[in-house]
Amino acid sequence: MRKGALLGVSLLAMVPGVVFAQDNPAPASADPGAGPDAGIVVTGSRIRVPNATSVSPITTVGAADLAQRGVTRLEDMLNTLPQVYADQGGGNRGGTVGASGTATINLRNLGNQRTLVLINGRRLMQGDPARSAAQAADINNVPAALVERIDVVTGGASAVYGSDALAGVVNFVLKKNFQGLQLDASNGLYQHDNGNPIAAVATAAGQHPAQGSTFDGLQQSISLTAGHNFAGGRGNVTAFVGYRHIEGVGTNSRDFSTCNLNATASGYACSLSSTTYPAQFQLTNPATGATRGSYTLDRSTGNTLRTYRTSDGFNNGNTYDLQAPDERINADLMAHFEVSPAVEIYGEMMFMHDKSDIRLSPTGVFTVPESINCSNPFLSAQEQNLICSSVGLTPAQNATVNVSMRNAPGGSRHDITTHTSYRVVGGVRGQFARGWHYDVYAQYGRTNYDSRLTGDISLARFANSLRAVAGPNGQPVCESALNGTDTACVPLNIFSTTGVTPEALNYVQGTFTRTGFTEETIVSGSVTGDLGLTLPMASNPISVALGTEYRDERIGFTPDSHYSSRDVAGNSGGEYPISGAFNVKELYGEVRVPLAEDHPFLKSLAVESGIRYSHYSTAGDTLAWKAGAEWAPSSAIRLRGSFQHAVRAPNLVELFGPQRVTTARLTDPCEGAHPTATFAQCAGSGVTADQYGAIEPAAGQLSGALVGGNPNLRPEKSNTKSFGIQLAPPSLRGLTLSVDYFDIKVDQLITTLPATITLSQCITAGAFCDQIERNPATGSLVNSGYVLTTNINAGYLQTSGIDFAASGRQSLEDLFGSRLGTVGFSFSGTFTNKYEVQIVPGTQPYRCDGYFGVTCGQPIPTWRHRATFDWVAPSGAVRLAATWRFIGGTSNDRTSSATFLTGSYQPYDARLKAMHYFDLAASFDVARSYTLRLGVNNLFDRDPPLTASTSGQTSNGAFFAGMYDSLGRYLFASITARL
Questions:
Q1: In terms of CB atoms within 10 Å, which end of the chain has fewer, N or C?
Q2: pTM
Q3: Start and end of every TonB-dependent receptor plug domain (predicted)?
């Protein structure tokens, strides 16, 4: 090929997808030392092939693109790919479904638990035992500076890699045969100009939004890589150590995140929590228990009560982080040595320690009934009269008051979360006959988890502190301190705006801990080779891969006694120990059959298939399989298609999460003297003839709900259809284009059904009646009665669409006749045609493609793309690049006509606008041994689109973190020194 012709970027003429702005990426590689006929192993298959073709779409991101973006967090890079949706990461908000301190990958928005993560083609263990939302591999374990490339295969790949690959596979391929010493250092920070009109909303609510220009969110990383080849290149040892430091950015540092938003008829308003400070008091009638009214302290007097108003609510929107502070250490050691072509010994040792400071809003005591003694010396005369005397309670009696209080004097809580991971791989591989290779390895991985929560309140100590009495010297003391049941108790005066003392806070507040681990052990062996059988019209023989694998997964989680006794105010539902394990034994095989090669209209024609049988100690037997074909009529065009049947066994938390009965707000149509459901309908839910019409209504419509894991879960199953075309037009030499259609459907979805839906389905359709357990004596859904809301297999998820990719490179000398360097481009875009959800089998599904909101969660735009344009100087010493990222607009799911999505919304909250982001980067080779990189991401400092309709773990107040740039323009500089 003539100098400067359009060379493309890597092997895109053969491998689908896109490789971003890099000179010499390698989307597939042979194992070192495997011999001249080793062939190439492509992510998505274990068969060695003579080229880099694949019937599954593959997107490859190279090390140069990671450097070009200046990332210290790999998830920030991956989230820019159209196929990847935001998940756990540094921008997640603390809370029940929020930040975990991990970083996970979510392909096609099918959930991180349905994306399999590999390092060098081998599993990365799960990263967190505490949260089901983080029961996936934590890519904090991956050292960014060691990454050679990242292969992303979308679509089911269970036949090749096993469970969890329903949405696809992300394979981090690390550098091999590194020689020398290399130092990498990077610094970056955010610059943002506050000027969002939403600031007026916060100001109107009495808040103080940030103003002016800010510089914050410093991200620093430094790493050292040392490698040495020995024995004539037959062996290599590479060592790596890296440190990363990220400073936090609070929501109070951006004007658009000062408040959570509420959509009203007159416009956006700050969404305020009724759990506030000063406290809200719901007073009840001691005779009937009925609520008399809600009150709070009158700030003008400081110690009298007035009627509570919604404007008294607490703004917790500015008490979280947009970026959590984080520190991480990575250390890795990799080695291989070829004793002979038949025996190569290899090993990997990886260590990661990550510490995150996850900030949560000041804790709240959420409408807890408290016993207030009417003789409490902190009560003013007006308070004593309103709470006690006015309803006939004497000083010797107690009033039951429902207290809602935000611990504003104590400030934000901090969940100091650490994950310490170890991963060890040891194996032997080689060539035992011409064309035949083997690989046997053992792998062990473990993640230790530790959480230390500060600033939360013990409900037991809070209750003690509210019962103040006059002490021997006339000063208020705790009743429990006088009677000796809790001598450490300090009385808490919540009946005065200036009454809370540091001593009382120190007593009611505590530090609460959780520990746990996940553990994975794998033993695997495989052989690959050709059968020595070549079909008449083919040049290459039939190839196969056969293997077996044993995997053992374990989990342990131990919250302290405060959590397990439901004593932590901010987690009053409680957390309970988890202990469980499962193992799986597997056999798998693949075959590739070249049918014809190098014939007219048959440049290449091949079929392939694979199958994997698995036996789970918990879920029983499963079978995953695939079938595909590719046809290249000429070197200019290649067509491919595949069908894959994949499975996902339930993970450890889904199986072994502790079951417990909590409360659910629902109306039982079978309760009361005149039930709204017929006896026949109620009988299906377990009501007897004697109980019908005699079931006492549940107080406050709070019935029982059994939540937790389910050891009887069945595996999820998915079917993936994919077909596409790749073009390399001869008239545009080196230009590559690809279009791929995908359709992924996940059945027997592991999910939970709200108690209201379960009960409604039983009564109206006779479905899920086995999920209802009534009190055998009374027929009610309280006490020993409940609705089962543990994990079950129900419904489906389906998504389909089209991926587009293009790339090319052109020498400007060919165009203009002088040495002006080369220009290149790469493009990757995804059109999402369908994202469909069915919660209950047999009911009407609903669509989330093109929507966001309370039900659909983070936006699922119908179109996303990323385009990069670059220029390389004739010497190669200077490289400039510009990237255009586009996220299409989406509509509020309340605007949908689907039954599950209908609801009220305000017209101005009906849509999130399309977002355009532009990034610039430059790199300079200095004195042959140094490379300097400078860049800016989100060049124009675009704020994320705001809405009052957010939900899910990527929700950070009024916007969706990870999906959109939320901190402003990111300025970075890095240097690589090769010593």
A1: N
A2: 0.91
A3: 54-169
